[in-house]
Specification:
With 440 residues, the chain is of the alpha/beta class. The chain is built from 10 helices and 21 strands. It folds into 2 domains: 342 residues, TIM Barrel; 94 residues, Immunoglobulin-like (Sandwich), CATH 2.60.40. It has a 6-stranded parallel beta sheet with strand order 8-7-6-5-4-12. It has a 6-stranded antiparallel beta sheet with strand order 13-15-16-21-18-19. Strands 1-2-3 form a 3-stranded antiparallel beta sheet, with no helix packed on it.
């Protein structure tokens, strides 16, 4: 995998655009049996996912750092002494992923083992110091561990994801992450791309945009209702030097907003509509791809788990078939027919000239770099006014696309010479994509 010539998306080694459609599977190496892993991977393959995002050192602390077979990743919690029993099982799962054609967005560690969420005066009121966690990595051990992983997984289809839900809140922690990156680069010979996963709501560009090891930026918007992730993607899209950008952790389907049912509006559960919003907002704003997630699935939750973890209620084998997971495949199908890698986000309302901010909503739009087509995401049932001359030519063919079903409905053909008003076809459905195609 490498960056595209324009440095806005990824391409394979044979220079084909790569549609990055990821599913978070944080506990893949810890909770499910090998049989269940095969069920999960075959399901995600059938739904169109191309990337799986697991975690080598799981969150919650050293007590829980043990897989379903009772193996720990390190001997005596020393990251310079990897446990071969643990990593042999990881090897087998990595082969399962590679055999199915997945790219593996692999996190070497959750951030708790590298550095705290907050330090000293930056800690919020009533912060629990225990959340600083067991910092088992310093610069030396981070480098050794990184070199070990880079060498061991050099020949797998890996993208390294540093950070693990942490911001480098001071120079000490930043140097630890940079040492991990340096070790990975030495171990795999610089063979694999690398990015950084911060806490919500942030981007890796805030700390590492000009770092040589950071190949593309990752933002985290997490489970926030109607958060304007498009603005965050656009900000990184416009950064110099140019690097691709990805929303690497976003609205978990069927989770409570911010994982809490006790804080007023946060009691809402994330719907498939909210999942679609975050995906189309990102893709029409210049993202290289998108990351889907479901908390029941990434934990591989089963109702027999006691005590039940926070915010989980549905068996993962049921939750894997939530509507939003299917609809990510529909998004990929649409952006294969209308190639995602051609899209240039419309940042000055040159496509949607009115109705782009109705009722506080945002209507992201993008056109192909050759002006052959344009796409508009209409996130709620509302009219939009579109400049039919935005693609040039004599005529424009207009259709509606249903992101729930993949159905396309022709509206008609219009002279490419002015502003036209368009209303989604069904008031009973919240969101649609408007497709404009230049006609000779």
């Amino acid at each position: 995998m490498k960056l595209s010539p324009n440095r806005h998306y990824l391409v394979t080694d044979d220079n084909q655009p790569f549609f990055y459609l990821a599913d978070t599977a944080w506990m893949l190496f810890y909770r499910p049996t090998l049989k269940d892993i095969a069920i999960y991977l075959d399901d995600r393959k059938s739904k169109g996912f191309t990337v799986i995002m697991p975690l080598l050192l799981r969150e919650y602390g050293l007590t829980d750092l043990v897989n379903c077979e009772g193996a720990r990743p390190f001997i005596e919690n020393d990251p310079t002494r990897p446990n071969e029993t643990f990593f042999r099982r990881v090897d087998f799962i990595m082969k399962m992923l590679a055999e199915r054609g997945f790219t593996i967005a692999l996190l070497p560690t959750w951030g708790v083992y590298v550095g705290a969420l907050w330090v000293g005066e930056s800690e919020p009121p009533n912060f629990n110091p225990g959340k600083r966690g067991p910092e088992i990595f310093d610069e030396r051990t981070a480098y050794i561990y990184g070199e070990y992983l880079g060498r061991r997984y050099r020949d797998f289809p890996v993208i390294w994801v540093l950070g693990g839900d942490r911001n480098p809140v001071n120079d000490t922690y930043r140097r630890r992450w940079e040492s991990l990156a340096a070790g990975l680069n030495v171990g795999d010979g610089g063979k694999h791309l690398m990015t950084y996963h911060p806490i919500a709501v942030n981007s890796s560009s805030q700390w590492f945009h000009e770092s040589d090891w950071l190949d593309f930026n990752m933002i985290q918007t997490s489970t926030r209702w109607d958060l304007d992730n498009a603005a965050l993607v656009l900000a990184d899209y416009n950064c110099a030097p140019t690097k691709p950008v990805l929303d690497g952790e976003t609205r978990y389907e069927d989770s409570y907003e911010n994982f809490s049912d006790k804080r007023g509006a946060w009691g809402r559960r994330i719907t498939a509509h909210q999942v679609r919003k975050s995906a189309y907002n990102a893709m029409f704003s210049g993202a290289l791809g998108h990351t889907y997630g479901c908390r029941d699935v990434w934990y591989f939750y089963e109702p027999s788990d006691q005590p039940p973890p926070k915010d989980l209620k549905t068996h993962w084998k049921t939750a894997k078939d939530f509507d939003g997971a299917f609809q990510m495949g529909i998004l990929r199908d649409l952006l294969t027919r209308y190639p995602f890698h051609k899209l240039i986000p419309a940042q000055n309302h040159e496509i949607v000239v009115h109705g782009y901010g109705a009722d506080g909503t945002f209507t992201p739009a993008a056109r192909a770099d050759d002006s052959s087509f344009a796409l508009v995401y209409v996130p709620e049932y509302m009219p939009v006014w579109v400049d039919t001359a935005c693609l040039g030519g004599e005529f424009v063919r207009v259709s509606w696309f249903d992101p729930r079903t993949g159905q396309t409905m022709l509206v008609g053909q219009y002279p490419a010479q002015g502003v036209e008003r368009f209303v989604p076809p069904f008031a009973t459905e919240p969101d649609f994509i408007l497709i404009l195609e230049r006609v000779a």
